[in-house]
Amino acid sequence: MIDVAIVNGSLLNPSPEGHDLRRRQATLAIHEGRIQAVLDPAETVDAAQVLDAEGMLVLPGAIDVHFHCRAPAFPRRGDFATETRAAAAGGVTTVFEMPISKPGVSTAHIWESRAALVRRQAFVNVGLYGSPGLLLSEEIEAMAAAGAIGFKLFLTRAPEGREDEFDGLVATDLASVVAALELVRSTGLPCVFHAEEQSLVDLYSTRALTSPGPDFRRHGRSRPAIVEATAVAALIAIAQQLDTHIHIAHVSAKATVDLLRYARAVGAPVTAETCPHYLFFTEDILEEIGPYGKINPPLRAAEDRDALWGALLEGILAVIASDHSPFTAEEKEATWGHILDAPPGHPGVEGLVPLVLTEALRGRFSLERAVQFISTGPAQLFNLYPRKGTLQPGADADITIYDPRPARQIKRAEWLSRAAACNRLYDGMTIQGEVYATLLGGKLIYHGGRVLGRPGDGKIVRPLSWAP
After folding, report:
1. What backbone torsions phi and psi does residue 114 show, to the nearest 5 degrees?
2. What is the pLDDT of residues 357-370, one digit of tens each?
3. Averaged over 129-143, what is the pLDDT?
């Protein structure tokens, strides 16, 4: 007898190259945490548990490659338990947690302490980034051996008062970037960059402080598109010279898309992601929601938003990630009228799957392409495929079941993140469908509006090339 059978659903399963995309009615047979077989729907199945997915979409569990919870430093904002519980409710089965902590994750010892916290608290699987900025080759190798999913660097300084949270994460000059990447290269792991050029941030932030006009415009003026594009141009050149995989986080600007198109044309080993907030909103929304919409890089103009959609369809952008970044409503509220002082970030992990699938259901791209953006593509880029990101025999049974039929509104009061009150971007948006069930290793952790999982259900995920 198999453990779980998912019957009557429509399987969404892109091929590894993103071509020959297949959707078909089938039964998934799950045993001991993995997919044992993909069966003809007419075949009789003897299973301990049967999930009827009639009329629903069955896809490999979503992987959110850009996620913050900052545990254990700021429990009022969220921790691994609260924020991964929210991920489970959103159909996300794996999150990659950024290494901003107290202190920043710059050594194997710190990495292991966070991994221990994940094992105690997480409802879903977690990949942990390390940070190479201390330029200690033995620590970089040790973090890779321990299971780091990749590394992360900021080209901007740490925010004032938060320097310890960014230990090892900051490289504001290109020589430091090159030195760090030369060490990371030996691990074979990607390095993710927050790409904004610090001297330009300084220049434009100074100007924005005294600029005329409404306060909400000052954030965009402090970090115009040239800030991001200049940083990305330098990173493309470095990646090409060193032949080292660089991944650009949260792309926001048309100018950056043009550079990434060039990078692909010349074969530079550069990949990139964008986020729902850049795809659905422009800076104008800040007139209404003020500091709640402050995110780095900023929300931009309609021209930038449209270029990002085009870049996804063109394959210039490979992944859509949430950049889930929890703060408290009190922290945001205190900065009305002083947006440059507001903490940057917005919650989003619960909206990732519904927002992307809604656009597919409305015809912007195929459902299979949507799965490529939020599951298969992330698994491929970070060397988790084919254990994750696919519905094939032998793959982990991390599965999202999505009911495309109901039309509903996102309501921040229904979100489970501790930062739900800060959801002012997506609150009230109409989406098509809802997450019906989330399975992690074949275990039902969310079903019919209820979280069934427990802290500790989640595991540390590590790239296959480093698997023991």
Report:
1. -70, -35
2. 999 999 999 999 99
3. 96
What is the DSSP code (8-state) at residue 194? E
Average pLDDT of span 423-447:
98
Q: What is the DSSP letter of 263?
A: H
Decide if 272 contacts 247 (C-beta within 8 A).
Answer: yes
Q: Does the pLDDT value for residue 22 go beyond 70?
A: no
Where residue 20 falls among pLDDT bands split at 50, 70, 90? very low
pTM of the model: 0.97
Structural contact between residues 92 and 60, judged by C-beta atoms closer than 8 angstroms: no
325 token code pair: 């970044």
Sign of torsion, CA 180 381 158 168? negative
Between CA 253 and CA 94 the distance in angstroms is 27
Q: Is the pLDDT of residue 15 over 80?
A: no
C-alpha of 121 from chain center: 19
Cβ-proximal residues to 335 (8 Å cutoff; 6+ apart), any chain: 290, 291, 294, 341, 342, 343
Report how far apart, in Å, the C-alpha atoms of 23 and of each of 98, 148, 405 are: 33, 33, 17
3-class SS letters over 208-232: HHCCCCCHHHHHHHHCCHHHHHHHH
pLDDT digits (tens, 9 = 90+) for 154-163: 999 998 888 8
* Strand-pair category, 319-320 with 399-409: unpaired
Q: What angle do CA 200, 202, 206 make, to 5 degrees?
A: 120
Distance separating alpha carbons of residues 323 and 315, to the nearest angstrom? 20
Which tokens sit at 85? 């519980």
Residues with Cβ within 8 Å of 163's Cβ and at least 6 positions away in sequence, in order, are: none
Residue partners of 297: CB distance under 8 A and separation at least 6:
196, 223, 227, 228, 250, 252, 253
Tell me how far apart the alpha carbons of residues 181 and 245 are, in angstroms, rounded to a whole number: 9
- Between CA 319 and CA 361 the distance in angstroms is 18
Tell me the pLDDT band of 140, cut-offs 50, 70 and 90.
very high
- To the nearest whole number, what is the mean pLDDT of the chain? 95
- Tell me which H or E stretch contains 425: none
Structure token pair of residue 449: 């509006």
What is each CA distance from 28 to 2, 36, 43, 127, in whole angstroms? 10, 8, 11, 26
